[in-house]
Specification:
Layout (H helix, E strand, L loop, with lengths): L2 H21 L3 H26 L5 H31 L13
Helix pairs in contact: 1-2, 2-3
Length: 101
């Protein structure tokens, strides 16, 4: 597998995730699309680390930080979504208007 193939895979996953964020109305599906985008970034980091800097582990360390932040984001976002669902009865992002008076 070459660096170009890893970049194409990463770009395709990121594009699918971006489409999911922009087109979906369900908050849980939007979170899944964000996770897909973060995984595309991880593939990109690991690819560059493996091909351009094989002696160092900077890409792997950065990927571990991204995974840690993604896990924290998913936990916090799911807690917020559950709280909104209990209060509003929906997780449709078009119907959630918590900032309106």
């Amino acid at each position: 597998m070459t660096l170009l193939m890893m970049e194409l895979l990463s770009g395709a996953l990121f594009a699918i995730g971006l489409y999911g964020v922009l087109a979906r109305r369900n908050a849980v599906l939007v979170l899944m699309a964000i996770e897909l985008m973060l995984n595309a970034v991880n593939i990109n980091l690991i690819g560059y680390a493996a091909f351009l800097d094989p002696g160092r582990v900077l890409g792997q360390v950065l990927a571990i930080f991204v995974i840690t932040i993604a896990a924290a984001e998913a936990g916090l976002a799911l807690a917020i979504i559950l709280r909104v669902y209990r209060n509003r009865g929906t997780v449709n992002v078009d119907e959630i208007n918590l900032m309106k008076w």
